[in-house]
Amino acid sequence: MPFSSLEAASVSQREKIPVQVYPHANDACRAVAQQIADCIRERAVAGKSCVLGLATGSTPVGVYNELVRMHQDEKLSFANVFTFNLDEYFPLQPHELQSYRRFMRENLFDLIDIPKENALVPDGTLPIEQVADYCKWYEAEIEKAGGIDIQLLGVGRTGHVGFNEPGSAKASRTRLITLDRMTRVDAASDFFGQEHVPRRAITMGVGTILDARKIIMMAFGEHKAPIIREAVEGEINSNIAASFLQEHPNAEVILDQAASANLTRVESPWLLGPVTWNEEKVRKAHLARSLR
Ligand code: GLP
């Protein structure tokens, strides 16, 4: 999306996390997969491991498909890779359709050459009294692996990353959390009814996520546009965990055009500086005035 230098300066004042908008989600996923592959290959050449923080949901599936393709067609090896997933419903058995562990096996782990013991997903099967210790162990395993090099994130409509629901503190670590009503509504179709959606989940904390050396948050589709604007242009606040990414030195947001629709640069670019008016911009300006 081309901008004059005046507009570009204003965009960076409004957008407090670097944002890249791709024409289609597929293009975005290929670019993200390429960044991951570059890290894996660079580390392999140096005889080191690459540590990935992974997300579930529909958003990162295109990234996983592309990584599997690279494994098959380009011999990308995951032998030097460690992965830590963000979250898992609690309680939930790993064979259940909605289990994030099952999701990761079906979409990635079983299709590549990652050593099984290197791919961790929080355990939703533990007795509740063991969960706190388990969460500490999960954090320690991340540290033992050398910390996360690249953390992939989707974002929920509540602004959660992982399952860090509104109210999650910046310093929060891996823990058991109670799911927000909106999150359970969104998950209802996966569970064939909201009443079957677990009330809790184990999630990495905001602080765990912010410790990653690089963070890539992806969002596709118009239903994500309002929360993306709040996370990227709004004030940092614990009601929107994704807004904490504004304080990370190496975070980026990857969008398709639909998810960028509420950013000022798309919705009302005339607020950022001189624009070349065309029919579409005039229409948007009229709409913006009528909504005021
Ligand atoms: C769930 C997951 C999040 C994910 C979000 C969005 O809540 N815990 O990690 O980002 O869903 O899912 P989707 O990518 O399907 O929109």
Bound molecules: 2-amino-2-deoxy-6-O-phosphono-alpha-D-glucopyranose
Find the structural class using helix and strand composition.
alpha/beta
N-to-C SSE string, H for helix and E for strand: HEHEHEEHEHEEHEHEHEHH
Please report the number of helical segments.
Answer: 10
CATH T-level topology: Rossmann fold
Alpha-carbon Rg, integer: 20 Å
What is the overall shape? globular
CATH class: Alpha Beta
Helical amount among residues, as a percent range?
25-40%
Quaternary status of these chains? single chain
Main beta sheet strand tally, sense and closure: 7 strands, parallel
Write a short abstract of this structure.
It is built from ten helices and ten strands. The protein is α/β, with parallel strands linked by helices. Bound molecules: 2-amino-2-deoxy-6-O-phosphono-alpha-D-glucopyranose.
Task: Tell me what you see in this structure.
This protein is an alpha/beta fold. The protein has a single domain (17-261), classed as Rossmann fold (3-Layer(aba) Sandwich). The protein has helices at residues 5-14, 25-45, 61-74, 100-107, 131-144, 181-187, 206-210, 225-233, 264-267, 279-291, and strands spanning 19-22, 50-54, 81-85, 87-90, 119-120, 150-153, 175-178, 200-203, 214-219, 251-256. The strands form two sheets. Strands 1-10-9-6-2-3-5 form a seven-stranded parallel beta sheet, with helices on both faces. Strands 4-8-7 form a three-stranded antiparallel beta sheet. It is globular. The chain starts with a helix and ends with a helix. The model is unreliable at 1-5 (pLDDT under 50). The protein binds 2-amino-2-deoxy-6-O-phosphono-alpha-D-glucopyranose.
